[in-house]
Amino acid sequence: MTITIYHNPACGTSRNTLAIIRQSGEEPEVIEYLKTPPSRARLVELIEAMAMTPRQLLREKGTPYAELGLADPKWSDDEILDFMLAHPILINRPIVVTPLGVVLARPSEAVLDILPNPDIGPFTKEDGEVVIDASGKRVA
After folding, report:
1. Cα end-to-end span (Å), the chain
2. What mean pLDDT is reported for the chain?
3. Closest Cα partner for 60 from 129, 97, 106, 122?
4. What top-level class would CATH report for the domain 4-132?
5. pTM value > 0.85
6. Is 25 labeled as catalytic in the residue annotation?
7. Catalytic residue chosen out of the listed positions 11, 58, 90, 112
8. How far is CA 128 from the centre of its chain?
9. Is 86 exposed, middle or buried (0-12, 13-18, 19+ CB in 10 A)?
10. 10 Å Cβ neighbour count for 9?
């Protein structure tokens, strides 16, 4: 089974998502997308698989989003893709690909919806937020 995570180790959500995947018993292919960005074709595939638009995948916080004026609706999908490829930090993360689907794992527990083994036992995020309690129930 192949699971891939487009990961930023500096991002808590990304680290939590990776920990959930590993706790499910899988060792994913980890792509640090800031070091190895997806190709344009791959980025388009991922966006389509998530039923999103490029604009919906844009990350604002901690990026050149404001400086580049990306809030302006004048930018086409192709232009937004160009910006993402020139500045990979604009790609929101983590993106996880499994045989069951592709998801932007925000929040990190969204990855449970596409894991082959979502019954991972108790899980608490780095910040102490309980995702799955001691009885194995997902906390809302």
Report:
1. 29
2. 96
3. 106
4. alpha beta
5. yes
6. no
7. 11
8. 20
9. exposed
10. 11
